[in-house]
Amino acid sequence: MATEKEIPIIGAQAFQDGAYGHSKDTEQKPGRAWDRKQQDVRTVLCFVCLMIAAGAWAGLFPATAQENVQHSALSTQHSALSSSLSALSAQDSALSSQSSVLSPAGTNPFAGTPGSIVGWGSQVVGVDLSKGFVSVAAGFWHSLGLKTDGSIVAWGYDNVGQCNVPTPNTGFVKIAASGHNLGLKTNGSIVAWGWNNSGQCNVPAPNTGFVAVAAGGRHSLALKADGSIVAWGWNDYGQCNVPGPNTGFAAVAAGYAHSLGLKTDGSVVAWGSNYDSDGNYSGQCSVPGPNTGFVSISAGGYHGLGLKTSGAIVAWGCNGDGECNVPSPNTGFVSAAAGAYHSLGLKADASVVGWGYAGHGRCVAPAPNTGFAGIAGGWAHSVGLKADGSVVAWGNNIYGECDVPSPNRSFVSIAAGESHTLALKTDGSVNAWGNNYDANC
Questions:
Q1: What is the pLDDT at residue 23?
Q2: Coil vs helix vs strand at 74
Q3: C-alpha–C-alpha distance, residues 85 and 425, integer Å
Q4: Which of 202, 211, 300, 218 is nearest to 260 (CA)?
Q5: Residue 84 domain-assigned?
Q6: pLDDT given for residue 114 in this prediction
């Protein structure tokens, strides 16, 4: 087994005091002397919520004119998907956690389409998840669900108020979760709550005109309708200093201490920390050339992924476990997702390719590796949505995050947290499974 890495951890009650050890394979939580009865005390940060990230906030609106360049490029890629994906195409285009296409505030195409949530892992919980949901987001140790009526349901670990949605709890259209939460409203304003030790919940004025949000380690990013980005919160590495010219952006993604912005001309702008948790140069803000032709972006804790119009994936940043070494042939990809130390790519033939740290088999999709329509990367596990509406999960399963509940059907969207998993069903219900110590499932 490879040597375990130490990374700065955020999102639990003692996090403001510094960094905590974290294993690639096991999760621990600081600040509480709990007896887990053979479960490790967890001290972990999961940045894949950001992919999810990319998953929870994307797809709720039709594209603006500004974003049509990105949308048209992606449509060329997705047209190559096999006919087996067509069964979920409507749901995927609306709810896909991989989409980077953005749209103006003020519309909600899901109105009147009830949905349920199914969950498994350590975050399965005592709130009503049976109907009315349209989107989900997985935070560190808590979960968010967006409903058709524009309200947000939050459950799980609540040490800093991350499950106390501010009032009025209405009019929301997009959500993002980390140690803190971001909710985008139909009027273009943002509501932020939860962990706020670095001001990541203090939305700058004027709080208007926003169309997308991303929650980083201890900072927040938001895209405006005019193509500019607003960033706030922890800024020790300049992750909130958007490089000029701050115009022409179409998508945002946030890592632990770095930020990514996709422009309408197909280039990617990266800023913030260029170093890993050990202080070594890793280059997550140094996008490889030629910096053109990108159609979507995904941010891991210390690395970035970009999908190109050619169907190739470009990866850069921390590469201690090969998470930036895209396997050959690097062609035919239609989406990408970044885990903590591993990466995932969905191909046009509906198969999933994984690379990077392979502990517990998180990089190898179970057979038959076909029929996939969506992907999400957790801390140490991976999740795939199939075109037939079933969910497949693989990798670390200490908390049952890979044990999909029955009946395994009718799913339309997925999200992967640190050690729990969320999936949205066509009936508007949510299933949650995995680590449920804090009732986040």
A1: 59
A2: helix
A3: 16
A4: 300
A5: yes
A6: 54
Does residue 3 form part of some domain? no
Contact predicate 419/409, CB 8 Å: no
Looking at residue 67, what is its pLDDT?
Answer: 37
- Give dist(CA 336, CA 338) in Å, integer: 7
What is the structure's pLDDT at 26? 52
pTM over 0.70: yes
Ramachandran class of 105: left when φ > 0, alpha when ψ lies in -120 to 50, beta otherwise: beta
The amino acid occupying position 118 is V
HSE toward the beta carbon, residue 134, CA cutoff 13 A: 25
Residue linked to tokens 């948790």: 277
Tokens representing residue 83 in the block: 């006919």
Closest CA to 180 of 120, 224, 233: 233
User: Residue 327 sits in which domain range?
Assistant: 47-434
Task: Kindly report the CATH number assigned to the domain that includes residue 212.
Answer: 2.130.10.30
Q: How much is the pLDDT for 210? A: 98
Neighbour count for residue 407 (Cβ, 10 Å): 11
Overall number of domains in the chain = 1
Q: Cβ atoms within 10 A of the Cβ of 392, count?
A: 20
Give φ, ψ of 314 to 5 degrees: -105, 130
Kindly state whether residue 299 falls inside one of the protein's structural domains: yes
Which 3-state string (H, E, C) describes 199-263?
A: CCCCCCCCCCCEEEEEECCCEEEEEECCCCEEEEECCCCCCCCCCCCCCCEEEEEECCCEEEEEE
Distance CA 103, CA 48 (A): 23
Instruction: Say whether the peptide bond before residue 243 is cis (omega within 30 degrees of 0).
Output: no
41 domain residue, yes or no: no
Task: Report the pLDDT value the prediction gives residue 120, as an integer from 0 to 100.
Answer: 61
The two structure tokens encoding residue 73: 């490029």
> What is the rounded CA–CA span in Å between residue 157 and residue 160?
9
- pLDDT at residue 123 in the model: 52
pLDDT of residue 92: 36
Q: Do the beta carbons of residue 409 and residue 94 sit within 8 Å? A: no
Collect the ranges in the chain with pLDDT lower than 70. Answer: 1-114, 118-126, 438, 440
